[in-house]
Amino acid sequence: MIILSKLADYGVIVATQLAGGAEEGQMTASALAERTKLPRATVAKVLKALAHAGIVTGARGAAGGYRLARSPGVISIAEVVAAIDGAMGLTQCTTHMPACERSAFCSTRPHWHRINHAVGTALAAVTLADMVSPFGNFAPQAPESSRESVSP
């Protein structure tokens, strides 16, 4: 099973909340914590990482808060995840070159790079704007077996 870190998951939740509230302008960390039902300290940690990556901007003061630095339609889920977790890798050898003692003779290594690239491409294809929509830009698909054509 491939699972994102909890913090990366929370990063997507917070960024999606900001994307959905774009018409409201900025939101405070407290307001985001309340809306997402996440602890305020966790939201603050996520916002700091997202700000460091240039995904959100923050303003201090009484009228301060956070907002997306760019349009939700151009911020990908891959970008949000990378801001929290760093470079994505499904195996150690896809992120820590050649830390593995098997790298010189491992027959699966090139395939993991291909798989890692495919997952990264899939995450890059989904934007925060997609996440705001109840169904994104993804139409529900019937299972493969029900899509087979039946000859009359």
Description of the molecule:
The structure is a single chain. This protein is mainly alpha-helical and 152 residues long. It has a single domain (6-132), classed as Winged helix-like DNA-binding domain superfamily/Winged helix DNA-binding domain (Arc Repressor Mutant, subunit A), CATH 1.10.10.10. The protein has helices spanning 6-20, 29-36, 40-52, 77-85, 92-95, 109-124, 128-132, 144-147; strands at residues 56-59, 65-68. The chain has a two-stranded antiparallel sheet. α1 crosses α3 and α1 packs across α4 (77-85). The longest helix is centred in the C-terminal third of the chain and has 16 residues, at 109-124. The chain is elongated. The model has no long low-confidence stretch (mean pLDDT 84).
Describe the protein's topology:
Blueprint: H1 6-20, H2 29-36, H3 40-52, E1 56-59, E2 65-68, H4 77-85, H5 92-95, H6 109-124, H7 128-132, H8 144-147
Antiparallel strand pairs: 1-2
Number of continuous helical runs: 8
* Integer tally of domains: 1
CATH topology: Arc Repressor Mutant, subunit A
- Poorly predicted runs are none
SSE series: HHHEEHHHHH
Largest sheet, described in full? Answer: 2 strands, antiparallel
Give the overall pLDDT as a whole number: 84
The CATH top-level class label: Mainly Alpha
